[in-house]
Amino acid sequence: MAPRSPRQNLASWFTYLRQFQQACSFNKDAAKMDLLTFANAKIARVLPSATEQGQFMVAVADTPGDPVSSADLTTYATFEALLDHFSPLPTYVGVYLQSLAVAPYPAGASADFWKARVVDAFPGGSKGEPWTTALGCLVAAIPAVCFTVSLQQKVAKTVDAATSKMSDVITQIAGLG
Amino acid sequence: MKIFLAFARLSILGCATLMPALFLMGQTVSPATEESYFRYPSLEPVSAVSLQLADVPSGLFDAVAKASQTGWNCLSPASYRVEVVDKSSKPTRQLALAVVEAAPKKDASGHLFIRCDGSGDPGSVELVLKSPVSSNENVQISVLDAGTPPNVLWKSDGKLTLKNGRALSLLLTPQSAPGEALSTGKKRDVGQLSIALAESNLFTNRELNVYAKSSDLISTDGKDAKSAVSATLGMQRGLLPRWYTPLRLEQSVQGNQTASNLSATTSLGISMMPKWAWPGGAFDKWIAHAPLAPDLALSATYTHRVEQLVTAKTPRLAGNDSAINPSLAWSSITLPGTRKLFFWSKDEAASTGSAASPYCLGLQMNLGLWYLPQDLTKSRSQRAEGYGDVSILMPLQMLSFASSTFPYFTSSDPAKIQIRIKYADSVNQANNYARAKTWTYGIEMIK
Questions:
Q1: What is the pTM of this model?
Q2: What is the extent of the structural domain holding A93?
């Protein structure tokens, strides 16, 4: 079996987030939220009682199969933070960007890529071909509501900043919005 | 009418909430954390170490990615070594693993993970421990390759502690009690030993959680009025396989240490959130909006008093008592129409007609009934005592004057501070179901 591609893993994270939202579907408000609103929704508001928290834990233990504990529901304020505890979105964003960066980064260690300067990984800044190609790939992989034009413009400023590191860009994209 | 002064319910975000933020900032946060959850429907408690294999800053992701190219299996217990270490990170004993599970268990297509390909999905594994761990022991996790002997690919910082790593807990607290009251009415100096013993999972059969607990206070004088013995054996299981319906049956025996006061209580309880539908349309938009169903609970208790120690302060009670207590808790009702009553200029833009807007009055209620079949009223009919409370919640943000007077309290989050007006018609189970009616007014700060 071939390893899943970085793009598949990034897309999978949003599938898991949708499954979390489906697990909250007994809350009619949560069921109607767009994906970004749900990602940032306060767990304590969506699941106010122990019974509702129990139902959520039962549902996500089945699909996707995350063993959420009662402590997790208070430790992590939002559903994005909770999902990141099991499947960290920054990793999937970072690994996908690493696969799209110029040589030698795709073949190197991820930890080194996170510390690399953006100008080295994507020369030419936000208007350069490496970044515009990467941006197009990110737009295709991330639901539009979670990677808005506004966020793309903010990310472009970070990409253009001379001192920016890849961890700054990864952080910004994984923050969603 | 009683008036209670302002009370505050302040929930403080735990430090661990900062973990994702620190992660994003590239600072090293250990990818190994404690995870204590339950299996369903058995409700069997599980104590595990959650290891985030996809953690980049710690170097674990790169180590796993490299090892996976040579067939390393993330779901094999042989791929990990979990040890108790001392303060200098020197191993003192090795802990056995019962099983390693992927988290999530299924990929995005719904297929169970049977191995890791090193690409980061599954993002974590759960190392379910077989060996007990004390809460004051530090645990270190090592990731091993498939070599003979295995090489360490990655090692945690050895600072992890597991609060729930031991199913059996025992707490002994000796104490002296000068001038302790005796059941005879006299007083004398005594020594006491408090014993708290609990076993959260007697059998690991995965069908039913059976637990036992005991809480005792043994005194050097058998007539010590505070001496107490309580032993409980309970079992619990989810009634429906995919819907959270915990059913609990408990048998407890309690009394004093000489058994001159001894009773046995059997209790049965179930709670659930029903599947339901709420009317939509104008009613939902303008009258009442309830996104969540009420929580329902039903409990029944039967008490048989074997021996009773009758004193001037403790009159003789019935030999057999039973009670059935259905209850309902509903905490998520809002009244969208009330937006228009208070001229909240800020709400117009924020609410945009949504019935779910927090910029309106909220409603919470708790209702219940104590049915006491063996307790007869003066007219010789069986006794039933209803009780309940209703709270009206007013977000401080909705008061336009408050936004200028208390800008911190009323900004950004409309439900950060709320006024609660509560009316309760309650009964006190511990005081022969004595009834009390109270009004409560308060200001609450919530997270």
A1: 0.88
A2: 89-174
